[in-house]
Model the fold of this input.
Amino acid sequence: MKVLILMVVASILGCAKDPAEPHTVTASADTLLRMEEAFSQTSEKHGFHTALKTFMAPNATKLVEGHHPLVGSDSIARVLDSQPDTGIVMTWKARNAEIAASGDLGYTWGDWMLRSKHPKTGDTAYGNYFTVWKKQADGSWKWVLDGGNGTPKP
Done:
């Protein structure tokens, strides 16, 4: 009888799902990596400012090198709308993503590249970035904190 009880307990424990199992976290991290890819593709196709506004949460904060933080989607949009981005193409690639065990908050980080659309100048800048993502009430993911810095050419 003891052997049967041990087998039943072992079977139940073997079926229990640990919320911190790597495949659970990886699936969610993959979601954030796909969000970053869509975010960058939107920037490339429609402009960096459009991408920022499209993927931004209402309570977002944008950290800008050399400036005070921009807080709230209305403030961020106002600044973006006052500074045209038609002469540049901004793209980036996530190098890593992690998500909280709760499944509603995560971050990505990676490398960005900013190219001039004007062939005569041919300027290109490089840097690193981070994005903090929060799952919204409707199930979508929006960025709540975004920032980065310039780096030398890779």
